[in-house]
Give the backbone structure.
Amino acid sequence: MTARVLANYNGKEMYLDEVTISPLDRGFLFGDAVYDVIRVYQKKPFLFNEHIERLTTNLDMLKIRCNMEAFQKDLHTTVANSPEQDGMIYVQITRGTAPRVHYFPDSSITPNVLIWVQGFDTTKHEKLWSHGCSVITYPESRWSHPHIKTVNLLGNCMAKQEAVEKGSYEAIFVNNDNYIMEASSSNVFGIQNGILLTAPTKQKILPGITRQFIFGLAKEMGLETKEHYFTQDEFYTFDEVFITGTTTEVMPVVKVDDKIIGSGEPGDITKRIQRLFFEKTRR
Ligand code: PDD
């Protein structure tokens, strides 16, 4: 039997399977909602302030007015009351429930706030963290604001599904100009001649919290970093590739489509970054 997942919906603590959502919820009808995923290590939400800052920016961009103080209090209570020591917090804030109109209804509408805390089983990831994963490339086919973390994820789901059907872990979006953007639920890094490369955000990709944390680790390691676009062909020739995300953490990539990256094993710099990341998160 799987353990019940502790949740909080609009300020009330309950189990996730007890939450009921109105069919007029704008997240359900229009995808009019933002979300975030925060990793919990030993009961402590990791990079919490950074996640809250991004969530607040996302809410502001969509003019969703949410009481962030009450929200943060509920979030900490749910983490404290959850039996999980290590896991992840899922947070979704929709504009609220209102008669169906396309424009944003009256600003007095109250957002619907969902929080849950679930255990995070790393066994599936552990093999990939040490041996590396394969990824596919996939045409950029998402809506034009992927820098806002909204629940409009069908493009991401389709890409990930194709990856899974091809026996790969992730799908990496390539835009019309042949540039590598990000993956369906992670950011992409490459290493060439000892330099760490990743695409700039420029409102084209999600400003990943883990991505930003990696810049800090690179600085600590004395590693040069460059944010610039690279083509799919350049990508295939990188010495090392890895992807990052809240649940992906630092995952080496050893194969992109049918091309082997480097020696086909996780690269040395990637392994050093990964080691440092694990040291900082698993003290
Ligand atoms: N996804 N890019 C996309 C499209 C993402 O969905 C995510 C995270 C990332 C990495 O961001 P961060 O480091 O802040 O987790 C990049 C989450 C984990 C998800 O949808 O489950």
User: Anything to note?
Assistant: The mean pLDDT is 97. The chain is about 30% helix and 30% strand.
